[in-house]
């Protein structure tokens, strides 16, 4: 099986990218896949949840090749799950990629050495749309976009789709899903029951708003380690991962 790359991406901040990236990477590893989570966000939230050791990873050295990316990989407490933690210098990844040779290819090139070792790479992305984002779009087989059911979030998704079209990028890679869904809210119900055109091809699974997810910060651990197996949020991430896995399989074997 060849390595596949799954990104959790949205230009909008605070929509549940990191929560999904960490939980799905853990579920993937638990299901038997050798998984690498790459924390591309200088905030380092995913790295923090997974209790990463501090590294001297400098974005500039990573991009110019003087630090081999393999040297940055750390094991985690979870079998088959490795991590490339973020460093605060990752905030300059965007500018560095702009200056690099063939900016769109930079991330694909960085990930290439892992193809023998890992079956899945999960990218936790910062909320940005520029050179780093384009490199992410290029390197990813599937881009899951968490969308909070509000008009502004749907508009952000429309803007993302327009960006893809204007740059001639492969829009079929985009797969939105509703995130932080609160069924007590009228607008959430409205948008879930009548999805707008931008949600075409969306995941059937949505992630509920749940204080159990927020508590990842308290436990500093993925949901599955502390939440009851049958908790709605646990079940939702599991279903989302299975949907993503099916999409990745389809992408791998077209027709
Ligand atoms: N399903 C959920 N229910 C309740 N709270 C959630 C849920 N998902 C995420 N959160 C909380 O919302 C906040 C933002 O989530 P998260 O960090 O996953 O978003 P993000 O899109 O990665 O943000 P950023 O753009 O800053 O990287 C966190 O405090 C997290 O605990
Ligand atoms: Mg995040």
TrEMBL record:
What is the name attached to this protein's record?
Answer: AAA family ATPase
The AAA domain covers which part of the protein? 3-165
Q: Which organism is it from?
A: Banduia mediterranea
Q: Which domain of life is it from?
A: Bacteria
**Which Pfam families does this entry report, sorted A to Z?**
AAA_31 (PF13614)
InterPro entries xref list: AAA_dom, DNA_Partitioning_ATPase, P-loop_NTPase
């Amino acid at each position: 099986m060849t390595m596949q790359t799954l990104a959790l991406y949205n230009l909008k901040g605070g929509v549940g990218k990191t929560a999904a990236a960490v939980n799905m990477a853990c579920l993937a590893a638990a299901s038997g896949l050798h998984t690498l989570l790459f924390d591309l966000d200088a905030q380092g939230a995913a790295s923090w949840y997974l209790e990463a050791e501090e590294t001297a990873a400098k974005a500039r050295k990573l991009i110019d090749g003087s630090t081999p990316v393999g040297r940055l990989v750390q094991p985690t407490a979870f079998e088959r799950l490795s991590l490339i933690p973020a460093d605060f210098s990752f905030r300059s990844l965007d500018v560095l990629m702009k200056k690099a040779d063939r900016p769109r290819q930079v991330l694909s090139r960085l990930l290439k050495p892992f193809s023998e070792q890992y079956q899945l790479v999960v990218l936790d992305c910062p909320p940005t749309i520029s050179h780093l984002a384009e490199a992410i779009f290029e390197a990813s087989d599937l881009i899951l976009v968490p969308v909070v059911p509000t008009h502004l979030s749907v508009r952000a998704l429309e803007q993302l789709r327009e960006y893809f079209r204007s740059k001639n990028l492969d829009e079929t890679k985009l797969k939105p899903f509703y995130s932080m869904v609160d069924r007590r809210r009228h607008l959430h119900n409205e948008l879930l029951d009548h999805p707008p055109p931008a949600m075409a091809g969306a995941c059937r699974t949505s992630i509920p708003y749940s204080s159990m997810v927020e508590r990842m910060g308290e436990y500093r651990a993925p949901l599955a380690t502390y939440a009851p197996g049958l908790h709605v949020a646990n079940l939702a991430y599991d279903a989302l991962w299975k949907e993503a896995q099916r999409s990745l399989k389809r992408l791998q074997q077209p027709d």
